[in-house]
## 1
Amino acid sequence: MKHFTHLFTLLSTVALLSGCGSPNASSDAELVVEVDTIPNVVGSELTYSSDTTTMKGYIAFDENLKEKRPGILVVHEWWGHNEYTRDRARMLAELGYVALAVDMYGDGQLAEHPDDAMKFSGMVMSNMENSTERFKAAYAELAKNPMVDPNSISAIGYCFGGSLIMSLANAGMDLDGVAAFHSGVQLPIAPGPELKAKVLVQNGGADPFISAESVEAFKASMDAAGASYEYISYPDAQHAYTNPGADELGAKFNLPLKYQKEADEQSWAKLQDFLSSLYPNK
């Protein structure tokens, strides 16, 4: 990742340039040399709280970067805040963002079984008032970080996390953009005038959890709201296509989960373009 470039101006004589086959060159020549700086990503656990819940997050950033950066909130799959969520935070840090992997379940709770995951995620999605407070706590924690530009904050989410951030954006959460991966689109909060964020949704076309009817209804509601959004479907990708651990989880619990490397890489590249459009001067 190229974070900055040093420009070196070297003075050279006509004789030197002539020896290189440039007899008509100016006596002064400017040579631009690009020097890549390898990111030095650091991450640490971060405890924060709302009025009712203590949460255990994880923040990652490139300590080689000194100027303020956009902040990205990363919301986990229905399993909870796990190492995969932290991996994505570190990947964002490599790109020059400050990323906070949030904990929406509280106390770092992780689901060991799909039944637990359904229970945890259901409690969050059925109580949006409480969920909003938890998300706002993470937002405030990221915004006050000295490396973060508090006016430049977006969110990405996976599965449950994607549905959550789209719902919060629909409710008017102050986010520049939200990007959802393999996410349900039947949301508890519909888009309307409060939606200001740009929206990117990237789902698998072979995901049995996401019906064609729900996608069409989602698009119709976004169009009716005049939303700025893009919906991308990867034809052969199934649910959890970005998660390298999906195959193991699918086999363990007999669920239609499958990692697809090509769709993962394409969707991540698309995310980078999306974020660059929001923050062109990063």
## 2
Amino acid sequence: MSAPVRFSTQVVPPQQRRLFWRDVVAEAFPGMTADAPNEIRADLSRWTLGPIGLAQACSSRARVSRVANQDGHTLVLHLGRRGHVTLEYGQTVVTVGLGSIVITDDSRPYAFEISDANDCLIFQVPVSHLGETFDQRDWHGTLLRAGDPNVSLFTYMVQGLWGQREQFGDVDGAIGDVLAEAAKVACRSGAQGAKDQETGLSPVNFALRHIDNPELGTATICKATGLSPRGVQKAFLRHSGLTPTAYINERRLTRAAELLSGSDRRSITDVAFDVGFQDPAFFSRCFRKRFGVAPSEWRSNHRSLIS
């Protein structure tokens, strides 16, 4: 077991941050390369518990890519806490939003597009530590959704332990074995649950389930449901009288208004990313057009009513 360690680009001059961050990422995740702007704002904290590696990566917009690790076979679970990351491997694209988990296998190449103001917890476990049945399955790119209770419990355990890592600095490394068992349950349950939930979903229900995915659109819905673009258009018109794009934007804006009306302390940029918008400026224009005020004014007005 190792003590938690932290690296931050804030400790080096701006002109050195890009190279500094590249070195930090490469050392923490062998085979990974960070492609980031010179002014990258990023922090990485790491902690080891027996066979388990835990890390938290907070970053402004960047891209990281990883070559296949020929010397190991480790599953890496990425827990989305703020913003979103988009996994790319081969011709497949998987977007991970708030509360979801995506699994990668370090024996396979992949890349991540990282949104601005991103916060992700990273859980690493050797496949050999999970048993033979895990080694026989291809977990690369598997998405575990937050709605599954076993996934939620695993996330709660990891976040709780991570949040108290300084106080738990002397915890027995065998706790890593407990987390590995919880990860096994979450992977099996969440993967099967996601498969069952996606099967037979209507286009509208599929859109609602994936509303925070910035890649969500008619093409994505067609691929998931097997319907033609015309069939998807008709389904949305019957349900709401709107096109898929208009319906998706309406639901995202409504959700954003709900978040801004409550006690949520996320920034407006974070809210925009969390509901599925990729461009905060575009989100603000859409919000003003829909509600007649800017997001900041909406938040101010509603918080004054609460107080």
